[in-house]
């Protein structure tokens, strides 16, 4: 993540639909599969806003990130965080964690299996991880390059990487189906009329922001009952 993007996250994390909806998704899955109490580590903490919510849920939280600015931000918020490369062995005791959260993280890492193996080592029996990744390699674009992505994912790919790392796949589904048509239209236009894109999130009106939050809430309701067949992200619940 670029420092400029971190600054943007600080501005948008409280209300922008993407960040709020992704955090609500993680909360819903943690409560369903790996409820507090227990130790929770988030990898790739960004501005550390998620850690605040996880702490409020009753977890003993800490975070890892490769950006000194993210670590400084977390510590300024009274949170535990360490500068650490997720692909290297984690500085935690084996089988000590109740939960791990990796929201749009492993697509940034050249060797995602190494990260997931570290997750497997760190999780206690009965614990697990919530992992989200961008879907559909055919949608890979300048947006992904600007964000530092190595790849986009299929459910088959995430399953294979998780199983190679020694994790059980408890649930796999898509997320964010409600913006998929618009994203496909944008990607198609970019292929015809290519131009560079920054990593900034597009601004929306308050009305549109609330409408998208409502759509995300409806989709979470559906996810609790049946898998979502398509969407801009793949969501994995992985267990020890």
Automatic annotation (TrEMBL):
InterPro entries noted in UniProt: SAM-dependent_MTases_sf
Gene3D superfamilies: Vaccinia Virus protein VP39 (3.40.50.150)
Source organism superkingdom: Bacteria
Any GO BP annotation: methylation
Swiss-Prot/TrEMBL keywords: Methyltransferase, Transferase, Ubiquinone
Molecular-function annotations in GO: methyltransferase activity
Name the record gives this protein: Bifunctional 3-demethylubiquinone-9 3-methyltransferase/ 2-octaprenyl-6-hydroxy phenol methylase
Source organism per UniProt: Thalassoglobus polymorphus
């Amino acid at each position: 993540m670029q420092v400029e993007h971190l600054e943007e996250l600080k501005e948008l994390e409280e209300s922008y639909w993407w960040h709020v909806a992704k955090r609500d998704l993680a909360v819903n899955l943690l409560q369903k599969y790996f409820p507090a109490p227990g130790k929770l580590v988030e990898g790739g903490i960004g501005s550390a806003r998620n850690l605040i919510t996880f702490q409020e849920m009753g977890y003993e939280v800490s975070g890892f990130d490769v950006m000194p600015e993210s670590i400084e931000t977390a510590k300024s918020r009274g949170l535990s965080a360490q500068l650490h490369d997720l692909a290297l062995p984690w500085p935690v005791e084996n089988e000590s964690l109740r939960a791990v959260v990796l929201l749009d993280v492993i697509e940034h890492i050249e060797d995602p299996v190494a990260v997931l193996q570290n997750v497997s080592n760190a999780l206690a029996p009965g614990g697990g991880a919530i992992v989200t990744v961008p879907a559909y390699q055919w949608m890979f674009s300048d947006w992904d390059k600007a964000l530092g992505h190595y790849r986009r994912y299929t459910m088959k790919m995430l399953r294979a990487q998780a199983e190679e790392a020694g994790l059980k796949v408890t649930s796999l589904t898509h997320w964010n189906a409600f913006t998929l048509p618009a994203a496909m239209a944008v990607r198609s236009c970019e292929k015809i009329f290519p131009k560079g894109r920054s990593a900034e999130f597009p601004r929306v009106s308050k009305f549109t922001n609330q409408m998208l939050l409502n759509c995300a809430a409806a989709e979470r309701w559906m996810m609790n009952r049946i898998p979502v067949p398509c969407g801009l992200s793949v969501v994995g619940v992985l267990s020890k």
